[in-house]
Specification:
Structural class: alpha/beta
Helix content: 25-40%
Order of helices and strands: HHEHEHEHEEHEHEHEHEEHEEHEEH
CATH topology of the largest domain: Rossmann fold
Largest sheet: 6 strands, parallel
CATH class of the largest domain: Alpha Beta
Distance between the termini: 26 Å
Strand content: 15-25%
Number of helices: 12
Number of domains: 2
Length: 405
């Protein structure tokens, strides 16, 4: 998936033009309260028992506050794909489980999987709000307008939208800097390719995905300037048969290493079946193709989910736009293959450390597009506004961006 997974469009500042191109349940039971101890018998007395005075109003209010604070924070998640997709949705559900493990009985979570980006999404999200959930996470870009509408209808509910760009007083957006994981994977691809041709299976042609394709290419070219990247679009986030077909097409056109911005493990499986190499995406996909697997660019949603819920518990939650990456522990590349040369692993580690401490920027000029036009001048570092609006291919990526002039 995938601001993702997954999105979809997963970037939270996607231009409206690109937005137009997009078109169960696991609960943590709350322990039953232990019965209150019986009161001790009153001492014998010949005096009449006085009628107790009414409790002061302040005491009643304090009691009500304590009771309210003792209730778990109810949190609901709407997932775009199945929990078992091995990628975007699987990563989100791992984040939900990390939240439960971290906050224990302070939270109670539930989810509904395979919620389409349609009116069904609004029905399910509205149901979450009506049944009293305190925070609702929508994990794909296509839920955006529904969540904006629901935020108005339920002002006391906190809404969190993955990869969107519209906010309100009770609606925040969040995303992960997946392009950082793509760049790290690119370094490995550049060091491992024999054909100098790498392939990418793209999901939906929006800035987030285009940014990832470009970043993967830049990473590969940092090691091997001869790299060219071929792209096949499937125009869906999760469709294993289409992903398999696209991967096969890329291999037939000369790509010996495959990358993806789709949600299933089909690309990695196809690479293994055809004797090529590939990467996992969003989650660690090693098990789906251990012989083909070079590494997995993963998203860890746990830190964000934990912080968001803890802020709500503490009364500190606020709206805003949040974009986390390697620095915040949200992006990594894991399970690197044993046959990757140590010098390439060292380059990955160096880039990762630079992203973590801010000494390295992936999008630093000079960078040119595929037509040779300079999009970033020498030493110019792209800001988030630039990154969130990318609609072009960098030099080395073949073909045209769908929908571009």
């Amino acid at each position: 998936m995938s601001l993702s997974t997954h999105s979809l469009v997963r970037p939270f500042a996607v231009a409206a033009l690109f937005a137009a191109t997009l078109t169960a349940c696991g609960k943590q039971e709350t322990p039953a309260p232990s019965p209150a101890p019986a009161p001790a018998p009153a001492a014998a007395s010949s005096a009449p028992t006085p009628t107790p005075a009414p409790a002061p109003a302040a005491a009643n209010e304090a009691s009500a506050t304590t009771a309210q604070e003792s209730k778990p924070l109810k949190i609901a998640f709407a997932y775009i794909g199945p929990v078992g997709d091995g990628g975007w949705t699987y990563a989100h559900d791992n984040g939900r489980k990390a939240l439960e493990a971290a906050l224990g009985d302070k939270v109670q979570t539930k989810y509904v999987e395979s919620v389409p980006e349609s009116a069904d999404a609004e029905r399910i999200l509205r149901g979450f709000a009506a049944e009293g959930n305190d925070i609702i996470f929508g994990t794909t870009f296509g839920y955006m307008d529904y969540m904006v509408r629901l935020a108005q209808d339920f002002p006391n509910v906190k809404f969190e939208h993955a990869t969107g760009y519209k906010t309100a007083g009770n609606l925040a957006t969040y995303d992960s800097r997946t392009y950082e994981g793509a760049y790290l994977a690119g370094i490995i691809a550049g060091g491992m390719t024999q054909s100098n041709v790498v392939g990418v299976v793209g999901s939906v042609p929006i800035p987030e995905v285009i940014r990832n394709i470009n970043s993967f290419t830049l990473g590969a070219q940092s090691v091997n300037p001869k790299i060219t990247t071929k792209v096949v679009w499937v125009n869906e986030w999760f469709n294993p048969p289409k992903e398999t077909e696209a991967a096969t097409s890329l291999i037939n056109s000369g790509a010996d290493i495959l990358f993806q911005n789709t949600d299933s493990a089909a690309v990695l499986k196809t690479a293994q079946d055809q004797g090529k190499r590939a990467f996992g995406w969003d989650s660690d996909m090693t098990a789906y193709g251990p012989k083909a697997h070079l590494g997995s660019a993963v998203i860890n949603w746990g830190p964000y989910y934990i912080k968001t819920a803890q802020d709500a518990v503490n009364g500190n939650w606020s709206s805003g736009q949040h974009w986390w990456g390697v620095k915040e522990g949200a992006i990594d590349i894991v399970s690197l293959a044993d046959d990757i040369p140590q010098e390439i692993k060292d380059k990955v580690a160096q880039a990762k450390q630079g992203l973590k401490d801010g000494t390295f920027s992936i999008w630093k000029g000079p960078i040119v597009d595929q037509e040779g036009k300079e999009v970033l001048t020498a030493d110019q570092v792209a800001d988030d506004g630039f990154l969130l609006g990318i609609k072009f291919y960098v030099k080395g990526v073949e073909g045209k961006v769908p929908g571009a002039n």
